[in-house]
Amino acid sequence: RASMAEADSPPGVDRLPQRSVLTDSSSFCPRLESPTDSRDKWNKKMDFLLSVIGFAVDLGNVWRFPYICYQNGGGAFLIPYVLMAVFGGIPLFYMELALGQYHHMGVIPIWKHICPIFKGIGYAVCIIDLYVAFYYNTIIAWAFYYFYSSMGTSLPWIHCHNPWNTPNCINYFGHRNVTWSNFSHSPAEEFYMRRVLEIQKSGGLQDPGGIRWQLLLCLFLIFTTVYFSLWKGVKTSGKVVWLTATFPYLVLFILLIRGATLPGAWRGIVFYLQPNWEKLLSISVWVDAAAQIFFSLGPGFGVLLALSSYNQINNNCFKDALVTSMVNCLTSFLSGFVIFTVLGYMAEMRNIEVEEVAKDRGPSLLFITYPEAIANMVGSTFFSIVFFLMMITLGLDSTFGVLEAIITALIDEYPRTLTQRRELLVLGLVAVCFLGSLTTLTQGGAYVIKLLEEFGANCSILAMVFLEAIAVSWFYGIQQFCHDVKVMLGYSPGLFWKICWVAISPAFLAFIIISSLLDQSPLVLFDYRYPDWSLSIGHLISASSCSCIPIYMVYKLLWTPGSLKQVRKAGYAPISSPGLVKTNGDFFGPLVITTTKFGKGGWGKK
Q1: Average pLDDT for 363-380
Q2: Known binder of ligand: residue 458?
Q3: Cα dist. 272→256, 339, 343 in Å?
Q4: Are 391 and 142 in contact (CB under 8 A)?
Q5: Any binding-site annotation on 314?
Q6: How far is residue 32's CA from residue 579's CA, in Å, rounded to a whole number?
Q7: Residue 54 marked ligand-binding
Q8: Where are the domains positioned within the chain?
Q9: In what order do the strands lie in the sheet with 602-605?
Q10: What sections of the protein cross the membrane (predicted)?
Q11: Is 328 known to sit in a ligand binding site?
Q12: Neighbour tally for 18: CB within 10 Å
């Protein structure tokens, strides 16, 4: 009978897991594949896996993890890092993959099927994704500028004889008896600050200066690549990630082998991994571990929901979550060896401690420290080209994911209007992101990027994921969610996952949020202290996304007909979705589970 049921299915319909789906709860909404579902699907399973890995593995894996690791006890940091991954990061990662795959919807319309009154979370996430696109692609444009600058016969940051160099520029490689003071700058530092950014021509946020036309051109090329990678959906992006998600690993292994052969490399590795067990007694170490694993895996941006929504209904998302999380964490660990072998080499050349070289963090590590080391290697041009090409591909993968989250959410929310106009939607979104990035291309654009990073994404996204975890576990119901997973996989998640989703993961997020609120250090970049008025603008940026949640709740309560009690019940009850129902081996045609607005649902023929 099962074979007959498969034979009678319309062409192109996904083969559904043969599970029994029976319930009489008004809040239960089983969602199996619709027999007329025309939604795009991944061509291959690897297209999906590479897209998720490409999004999760970004520039932060290359610079942030190595810095956080050595700063918080070296090898001892791996203990809190692994614990936070197991009890916080991976459960949230698994939850988002399962939600997207089961409901086959983006981050905005999916809340109609989880808890409608929380739909504002979807709008807030899309706004946060826009802010990320405004500044993140400019960092990729910096890498593109370096990539282009590496094409000459010699690297422009190898000496101090360029028009942008100052008398404080000192090249200590290959020179003896060089005096290094607090006012000294390396050629790589002055190339980044005075040539790429031209930050010396900016007086801060109040005087950002003009737009750097070179960076404008680089950004235009970046967004052009993004458009033609996304305009046809997962059919095209799934092919592009075979290059952009795999190439960085080839480069990492090349750089690791080269770094390991440099003099002094062992000093960097020892400094990277030498455990400092006393650090584990510090709360800040555990906060950094929690924040690192969260921002590394990337739940909450709507990307995992969007990418998994194009999966087959019976895809093993549990296995996908484990595999991609492991790849992400191991990539971070591998990047540490790539970075610190080079830092050990620089310490050997400067005849100083590795700690003095490793004081740079963030973009400075990628655009000053590492290029400086590359410039003094044999074959510097080749290694510079592949390094910055790796950075470009790492950044592009994350951009693909962030913009796909917005595109999928809008198309699923307004299917009649946008489904057949995807190319125009992608073009419009790319244009908006390009225009929104113009302030980051000014001579003081680095200050704008720091402001957007701190207030546009970091604080807000933590709150979004916390609310998402609460809404799914407590309002949608952990038993309901586990039943959804059972429909897809054939087995229910174990007790460990339930405890994590209900208690540990929300506590994990609350821990990060509270700690970040209590540790409000002054915002400083390149010795520029952000004025109070700029911090007020930052708080407005945060409020612009977070305010979507209470605004939508008020809208829902005011515009839904009925008494307040009925309206509240309607706001918490998910809307049903069409599906196939199977009992005792037979599919009973397309059925729909109907849920009355305030009463119990029933079975109805479509």
Answers
A1: 85
A2: no
A3: 14, 9, 10
A4: no
A5: no
A6: 4
A7: yes
A8: 45-572
A9: 578-583, 586-594, 602-605
A10: 48-66, 78-99, 120-148, 211-228, 240-260, 280-307, 327-347, 382-403, 424-449, 455-475, 495-517, 537-559
A11: yes
A12: 14
Would you say 484 is a known binding-site residue?
no
Q: Per residue in 222-240, pLDDT tens? A: 999 999 999 988 888 889 9
Residue 287 identity: V
- Cα–Cα distance, 75 to 454 (Å, whole number): 28
What number of other Cβ atoms are within 10 A of residue 119's Cβ? Answer: 24
Give the chain's end-to-end CA distance (angstroms, integer).
Answer: 23
224: its two tokens:
């052009």
Whether 438 has a binding-site annotation, put simply, is no
Q: How confident is the model at residue 564 (pLDDT cuts 50, 70, 90)?
A: low
Torsion over CA: 385, 391, 397, 400 (sign): negative
The span from the CA of 77 to the CA of 273, in Å, is 9
Q: Is the distance from CB of 262 to CB of 342 less than 8 angstroms?
A: yes
Count other Cβ atoms within 10 Å, centred on residue 67.
Answer: 20
| Cβ burial, residue 340 (10 Å; 0-12/13-18/19+) | buried
Buried b / exposed e along 83-116 (16+ C-beta atoms within 10 A): ebbebbbbbbbbbbbbbbbbbbbbbbbbbbbbbb
Q: What is the pLDDT of residues 582-599, one digit of tens each?
A: 333 333 333 333 333 333
Per DSSP bridges, beta strands 578-583 and 528-529 are unpaired
**Is 394 annotated for ligand binding?**
yes
Could you tell me which residues are beta bridge partners of residue 528?
Answer: 525
545 within 8 A of 127, measured Cβ to Cβ: yes
SS3 assignment, position 136 = helix
- Which residues sit opposite 185 in a β-bridge? 169
Residue 22 has pLDDT above 70, yes or no: no
Q: What is the pLDDT of residue 12?
A: 38
**Which carries the bigger pLDDT value, residue 357 or residue 257?**
257
Residues 6+ apart with CB under 8 A from 219: 137, 138, 141, 434, 437, 441
Residue of 9, 25, 104, 13 whose CA lies nearest to 483: 25
What span, in angstroms and rounded, lies between the C-alpha atoms of 240 and 168? 44
Q: Which residue has the higher pLDDT, 167 or 361?
A: 167
Please, what is the average pLDDT of the chain?
A: 83
Instruction: Give the Cα separation of 576 and 591 in Å (integer).
Output: 11
The CATH class given to the 45-572 domain equals: mainly alpha
pLDDT score of 435 more than 80: yes
C-beta of residue 88 within 8 angstroms of C-beta of residue 509: yes
Rounded CA-CA distance 256/260 in Å is 6
| Token pair belonging to 356 | 């003095």
pLDDT at 596: 32
pLDDT of residue 105: 92
